[in-house]
């Protein structure tokens, strides 16, 4: 059973969100998606010149993030 934590997700730091992601916290993953999917799509769009391709790339990144969450280590911020 997934328990809601008393802290507000929007107030979580990137570091804390990442710790929760590593622990398979779906709410943390959702918050990371909410914070970063649009900026990452915009970033990718500058390189691929196609919104559809940029969206696909970002979706692939988030799928990989979830699938490999237990092995990943972030040095710095998630935004970098």
Quick description:
The chain is mainly alpha-helical. 61% of the residues lie in helices and 0% in strands.
The succession of helices and strands, N to C, reads HHH
- Give the radius of gyration: 13 Å
Instruction: Bin the helical content.
Output: 55-70%
Distance between the termini: 32 Å
What would you call the shape?
Answer: elongated
How would a textbook summarize the main sheet? none
Number of strands: 0
* Total count of helical runs of at least 4 residues: 3
Judged by helices, strands and strand pairing, the structural class is: mainly alpha
Poorly predicted runs of 5 or more residues: 1-12
% residues in beta strands: under 5%
Report the average pLDDT across residues. 84
Short key terms for the protein model shown above:
disordered N terminus; elongated; 80 residues
SSE topology sketch:
Blueprint: H1 14-22, H2 26-48, H3 51-67
Describe the model.
Helices cover 61% and strands 0% of the residues. The protein has 80 residues and is mostly helical. It has a domain at 37-80. α1 (14-22) crosses α2 (26-48) and α2 (26-48) packs antiparallel against α3. It is elongated and about 35 Å long. Mean pLDDT is 84; it is low at 1-12.
């Amino acid at each position: 059973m997934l328990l809601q934590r008393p802290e507000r997700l929007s107030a979580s730091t990137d570091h804390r969100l990442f710790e929760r992601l590593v622990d398979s916290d779906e709410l943390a993953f959702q918050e990371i998606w909410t914070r970063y999917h649009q900026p990452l799509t915009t970033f990718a769009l500058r390189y691929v010149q196609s919104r559809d391709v940029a969206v696909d790339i970002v979706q692939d990144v988030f799928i990989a993030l979830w699938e490999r969450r237990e092995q990943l280590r972030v040095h710095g911020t998630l935004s970098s």
